[in-house]
Design brief:
single chain; 111 residues; alpha+beta
């Protein structure tokens, strides 16, 4: 007759995973926490609102960079990415979107 060893999944007296940890509300933020980065869409909305007229995606990228609101983190075509993101927001939110397409390639702040 052979002996078989059995494995126990948890040691005696161990806590379940996550037990005893602090909730998010109880945790203190790190002293050197970085401020949240502004998204390209948020920066574009800010630029369009301030400008008050329709702009193309490449004009928005230039204005966002110039004003220090947002800069591309090494993307090769940030204007194409911004254009696509604006189109997605318009399609998803409809009348509640922050942007409105005025003509081919131009957007204005919808409020």
């Amino acid at each position: 007759m052979s002996k078989k060893s059995t494995k126990k999944s948890a040691a005696k007296g161990s806590k379940p995973v996550g037990a005893g940890s602090k909730s998010k509300a109880d945790r203190k933020p790190a002293a050197d926490a970085k401020p949240k980065r502004v998204s390209a869409l948020d920066a574009a909305a800010t630029v369009l609102k301030a400008k008050g007229e329709a702009m193309r995606a490449n004009e928005m990228i230039a204005a966002m960079t110039e004003q220090g609101l947002w800069s591309s983190p090494s993307g090769k075509t940030p204007q194409a990415t911004l254009y696509a993101a604006i189109i997605r927001e318009i399609a998803a939110k409809g009348k509640d979107a922050r942007f409105r397409k005025t003509e081919r390639g131009k957007f204005e702040y919808a409020g």
